[in-house]
Amino acid sequence: MPELPEVETVARELGRKLKGRKIVSVEVRAPKIISIGPATLPPVRAASPAAVARFKKIAVGQKFVSVRRRAKLLIFDLSGPWTMLVHLKMTGQFIFEDVRLRKMTGGKYRLLNKAAAPKLQLPARHTHVVFRFSDKSALYFNDVRKFGYLKLVHDNELGQVREFSEYGPEPLDKKFTLQVFVDRVSARPKAKIKQVLMDNKVVVGIGNIYSDEILFHAGVRPAREVAKLSAQELAKIYRHIRPILQKAIQAKGSSVGDFVRTDGSWGRMGKFHYVYGRKGQKCKKCGSIIQAIKLGGRTGSFCPQCQA
Ligand SMILES: [Zn+2]
Asked: What range defines the domain where residue 122 resides?
């Protein structure tokens, strides 16, 4: 699942590529993916043919003004009084293809991060929405699991989007101080530290990958109970959050699972992982074997020597 660095990579790349582009057509191949209005969507849903028609009618003719991120939500500001909110959830991905990229790739992309995955022509089986532009470029939204969504919200109704009011602080924001972190973490004294780091109300955008990596660098095991952590340990965890997320943004994210960049290439952060996805391999610092434990349905990986 994409986390803050991956979503930030998509926002920056699409912000650059889409700025000023005018949508000339929209193809909705899976009605489930789209919706109109601020409502929070249930997992099982389907847009009516009328909603699909309205979605297209609103989008066609609009220009993309900017692309931002809040938590793991992508915010596309459109030239009209509308905003498109996109959540990639488990396996959502965007590919922006212009004539130049199509020449380079032959129009084929490996949408899974496995060297053995087939290269597919877009739109492929898991392409659910396509935006086309006047210069023959196109923006494809692919999603194997189909949990992601594209939601058009009128600017007057943005205040009613519940996700925004539920998100905790942005970890890269100056306002996210050690005191804010400690206060929010301490509100869940009985929980395990890894689960608390992944809690959107404590801090947004940190999931399975980066919670493992932050805790490795802080020297704290993922299953430690919050109430039993010392002030020094909490400060150490806090101090590693920003550098690790920033390094991952520089590397254009971690291509694990289905995450690819918007030109279909892979992020390089995976090379820098110390523990995530490395169970059974040697610790890069001390040579001990990386272990894994189950924590509420998720797996936490850690080094038994480097983390206490
Ligand atoms: Zn180690």
From this structure: 4-166
Note if the pTM is more than 0.90.
yes
5 is catalytic: no
State phi, psi for 213 to the nearest 5 degrees. -70, -40
Tell whether 245 and 139 lie within a shared domain: no
How far is it, in rounded angstroms, from Cα 124 to Cα 140?
9
d(CA 154, CA 81) in angstroms, rounded, equals 6
Q: Which stretch of DSSP H or E encloses residue 295?
A: strand 291-295
Question: How many domains does the structure of the chain reveal?
Answer: 2
Does residue 171 sit within a domain? no
One domain for residues 189 and 145: no
Q: How confident is the model at residue 91 (pLDDT cuts 50, 70, 90)?
A: very high
Check pLDDT > 80 for residue 257: no
Q: Are 39 and 159 members of one domain?
A: yes
Could you tell me the distance, in angstroms and rounded to a whole number, from the CA of residue 3 to the centre of ligand 1?
24
Query: Which of 21, 69, 72, 151 is flagged as catalytic?
Result: 72
Query: What CATH number did the domain enclosing 219 receive?
Result: 1.10.8.50
What is the C-alpha separation between 79 and 231, in angstroms, rounded? 48
Are the C-beta atoms of 111 and 93 separated by less than 8 Å?
yes
Assigned token pair, 200:
């959107």
Residue in this structure with the two tokens 């038994």, named with its chain if needed: 304
DSSP 109-164: EE-SSSTTSPEEESS-TTEEEEEEETTS-EEEEEESS---EEEEEEGGGGGG-HHH
Residue 134 shares a structural domain with residue 196: no
What is the CA(244)–ligand 1 centre distance, in A? Answer: 17
- Alpha carbon of 282 to ligand 1 centroid (Å): 8
Residue type, 118: P
Beta pairing partners, 141: 94, 129
Residues linked to residue 119 through DSSP beta bridges, in sequence order? 110
In this prediction, residue 170 carries a pLDDT of: 98
